[in-house]
Amino acid sequence: MNNPLQQAATLSKRSFNELGYLRISLFDAGKRFNREWIFRHITHTFEMGRYYAITGPNGSGKSTLLQSIAGNIQLSEGGIEYRISNATIAPENFYRYLSIAAPYIELIEEMSAKEFLHFHRQFKPLVSQLSIDEILSMIGLEKSADKQIRYFSSGMKQRIKLAQAIFSDVPVLLLDEPCTNLDTAGYQLYHQLIEGYCKNKLIIVSSNDEHEIDFCTERLNIIDYK
Fold it and tell me: Is the pLDDT assigned to residue 144 strictly greater than 80?
């Protein structure tokens, strides 16, 4: 049987449910830009199957912390460890295990919605039980499947961002203000997708909107780490 590190190499062919227990640990973590500390002295473990919220005022550094957890931003002090069962995941390989939706992540607007999800699937597997046509139908975009994303409304674009993140067959889901530009129906869809397809995932949501984080049972207020 493959060990967890060998499993990581074949992640695109296997469901994350076949992997071991995943956790992310921060040790006295801090990040600063120039002389300004965004956060300091965070020691916390995030575990698979649990839902976390990062809260704090606008501009306080919630997104910076989320990007640091993702490995996209290097910490200024302390450390971060990614583990599956008893094996350590190299930071440069952790992208294989996560998906992310955020306002600052751009879509390829020259593609249609269907083309974009097919393109995304080449790099990260989507859940096997649904076709791309079914995914587009679930998020209410079946009539716009072949329309270029550049002609989508902001709410339609956000639905595509959520779809590529939530339906990726990976154990970690990072969401930064996930309901940006969504209407009431969009909020309802967001909760339906979380409940239906994310029960065993490690979810971290960066937001101050209670309707985006009401399912999160653990919360970190970044102001406590200034």
Answer: yes
